[in-house]
Design brief:
heterodimer, A: about 190 residues, mainly alpha, three-stranded antiparallel beta sheet, 7 helices, about 5% strand, globular, B: about 110 residues, alpha+beta, Ribosomal Protein L30, Chain: A, about 15% strand
Chain lengths: ~190, ~110
C-alpha cells in the first residue's frame, strides 16, 4: 500500500506499489483524453496562434463542465471568456496530467515544488471527475462516499469508484500537507 | 455591458451607499472605469481545504492566515472575493483558478 507523500530534504517523495501507479496513470490518461479539444484547431491562423476558439461552447458532459467552468455568471461574458481561454485551459490541464503520469515512472517518486504542484492539480482534476460520476453535490454526498474504505468489499462500480476517490483524496491530502509544510512561513 | 448577475449573488460588502447614490452621466461613466473587478471563488464539496489554502498561498502569494481565512469564507459562506483589480487581471486570475480546478468567476465590484 502506498505510504503517501512526505516532505524530505531531497524533495517531496512517496512510495507506491506498481498496481497503484498503473491505476493513477490510467486515471490521469482518462481525464487527459476527456479534455482533448472536441473540434480541430481553428482554420483561422490568427485564432490558432492566440489559442482562441471562435466556436467554443459549454461542454455537454457534466464532469467536463466542472473542469472547464463558466468564468462569469453573465452568459455573454462567460461565452467570450470561454472563446479566449478554453482551448488553452484544456492544453494546460492535459500537459499537467501528462507530467504527473511521467513523475510516476520513478520509484520512489520524488517531486520538486513545481512537479508537486502539477501532481496536486492532476489529482484534483481526477477527483473532480470521479466526484461528478459519483454524484457528489453536497457535503452529505461526500460523507456518504467517504465511508467506503474496504478494498476487499467491492460490490459494484459505485463502491469501486468510491474507493478510488477516497484513495486519490487521501493521496492529495498527504501531498498538500507536504507542500504547505515546505512553503515559507508567513 | 448588460449584466445578469442576480442581486443575491453579489457580495454584500459592495452594496455601499456610495455606489447606490452615485450620480448618473459623465461622472458615473468615469467612475465605472475605475470600479475594480472581483475574482470570486465558489464552494464545492470536492476541493480539499488544504488544497484551496495551498492555491491561495502559492498563486496569490497570500500569507498563511489570509489564505486560510479566505478558504474558510468560501467554505462557510459559499463564496469569497479572493482578489480585485482591472478586468484583465480578474480574467487572468479566474483562468488561473480554473487551471487549479477551483470554480471562479469575475464580476464588477458593486454588480454593475
Amino acid at each position: 500500500m502506498a505510504q503517501g507523500f512526505r516532505s524530505t530534504r531531497r524533495g517531496i517523495t512517496a512510495r507506491f506499489e506498481d498496481a497503484e501507479k498503473e491505476l493513477l496513470q490510467k486515471l490521469f490518461a482518462d481525464v487527459a483524453q476527456a479534455l482533448a479539444p472536441e473540434q480541430p484547431a481553428s482554420e483561422d491562423s490568427l485564432e490558432r496562434m492566440l489559442g482562441v476558439s471562435g466556436d467554443a461552447t459549454v461542454p455537454d458532459d457534466s464532469a467536463l463542465r466542472r473542469l472547464l467552468p463558466d468564468g462569469s455568471l453573465d452568459p455573454e461574458r462567460a461565452a467570450e471568456f470561454r472563446r479566449y481561454t478554453e482551448r488553452g485551459l484544456r492544453e494546460t490541464k492535459r500537459g499537467v496530467l501528462k507530467q504527473a503520469a511521467l513523475a510516476l515512472e520513478a520509484e520512489p517518486v520524488r517531486l520538486d515544488p513545481e512537479q508537486a504542484q502539477a501532481f496536486g492539480q492532476a489529482l484534483n482534476d481526477v477527483r473532480l471527475v470521479l466526484a461528478d460520476r459519483l454524484g457528489i453535490r453536497s457535503e452529505a454526498d461526500a460523507e456518504r462516499v467517504g465511508r467506503y474504505d474496504d478494498w476487499s468489499a467491492i460490490e459494484d462500480v459505485e463502491t469501486y469508484m468510491s474507493l478510488l476517490y477516497n484513495f486519490v483524496s487521501w493521496l492529495q491530502e498527504t501531498l498538500m500537507e507536504a507542500l504547505l509544510h515546505d512553503l515559507p512561513r508567513g | 455591458m448588460h449584466c445578469t448577475v442576480p442581486a443575491a449573488a453579489r457580495p454584500a460588502a459592495t452594496a455601499t451607499p456610495e455606489t447606490s447614490t452615485r450620480p448618473t452621466g459623465a461622472t458615473s461613466a468615469a467612475a465605472a472605469t475605475e470600479t475594480p473587478w472581483n475574482v470570486v471563488v465558489w464552494d464545492d464539496p470536492v476541493n480539499l481545504m488544504s488544497y484551496v489554502t495551498y492555491v491561495f498561498r502559492s498563486y496569490f502569494g497570500y500569507p498563511e492566515e489570509k489564505a486560510r481565512s479566505l478558504m474558510l469564507e468560501v467554505h462557510h459562506h459559499g463564496r469569497s472575493v479572493v482578489a480585485s483589480g482591472s478586468l484583465e487581471e480578474a480574467e487572468t486570475h479566474t483562468a488561473a483558478m480554473h487551471g487549479f480546478g477551483l470554480w471562479a468567476t469575475f464580476e464588477q465590484a458593486g454588480g454593475h
